[in-house]
Amino acid sequence: MDSFRSKIVPVTTILAGLVVVWYVFAVILNTPFQRDLDQRANQNPGTIEFIGKTLSQPKPTLPAPHQVAVNFFENTFLRSVTSNRSLVYNAWVTLSSTLLGFAFGTALGIIIAVGIVHVASLDRSLMPWIIASQTIPILAVAPMIIVVLAAIGITGLIPKALISTYLSFFPVAVGMVKGLRSPELMHLDLMHTYNASRSQIFWKLRVPASVPFLFTSMKVAVAASLVGAIVGELPTGAVAGIGAKLLSGAYYSQSIDIWSALVAGSIVAALLVTVVGIAGRLVDRAMGGRPA
């Protein structure tokens, strides 16, 4: 119970503080437009009424938290999941490319890590390029991927998944390299005294030692993969997906829709990271690990 309180109370306190700050900034940022509206209507509302108006504008500069909550509830629970205005539908469209890109990125990261650990020339030649690849902004890479793949007739899910792959393979590769190299020299020497082959050392020592590193890096990778999928929807002219909702909201100044889509994206990211964390605990328990 004490542990529960020690975790929940700090988090809820920070959350409450953020909501209060959010309301304050909503009033501050929406005040100029509301003041202009009142002057045009020749109205002179009191302070409380004026604050109420700033928090209920249909297209505010910064929507209030309750406006975002109402919009999120309506577009999540009160609309058909097949409607293109449903956040569930749009989240699923983004999630499909996220999962495919995450699968590609995880597989690519593991293959690269195995190559780097076992081939010295790859360690010296490939690792610097992998690190350099992540210094290029994804907003610059995404349109090039979309255009090149469209030129050879590949459109739809694959280009968005490849952008997710670009972001997600890096943490997996780095984490797996560290994990595969984590066995102590004494354990490696022990395997050599047993005359173990490289394959046996890999499967019986390096792979089990790398599992905690793999799932930790996969938590980062799956969140990065979601970001890649959202960014990938922006230059493709997608009509569905969280990125498409953000873009259409920006076109039509629907700031409440934009924030609602951001909340949906955050929830999807939290769920994905949680699922990967649960999978990591199950695998660790299946391998005989003890709970911390």
Structure description:
This protein is mainly α. It has eleven helices and no strands. The mean pLDDT is 88.
Summarize the structure.
This protein is mainly α and 292 residues long. The protein has eleven helices and no strands.
Question: What layout of secondary structure does this protein have?
Answer:
Blueprint: H1 2-40, H2 47-54, H3 65-77, H4 87-118, H5 120-133, H6 138-151, H7 157-180, H8 185-193, H9 198-233, H10 242-251, H11 255-286
Helix pairs in contact: 1-2, 3-11, 4-5, 4-7, 4-9, 4-10, 4-11, 6-7, 7-9, 9-11, 10-11
General form: elongated
Count the helices. How many?
11
* H/E element order: HHHHHHHHHHH
Number of strands: 0
Distance between the termini: 17 Å
Helix content: over 70%
User: Biggest sheet, in brief?
Assistant: none
Mean pLDDT rating: 88
Q: How does the helix and strand content classify structurally?
A: mainly alpha
The parts where pLDDT drops under 50 for at least 5 residues are none
**How big is the Rg?**
24 Å
Beta-strand percent range: under 5%
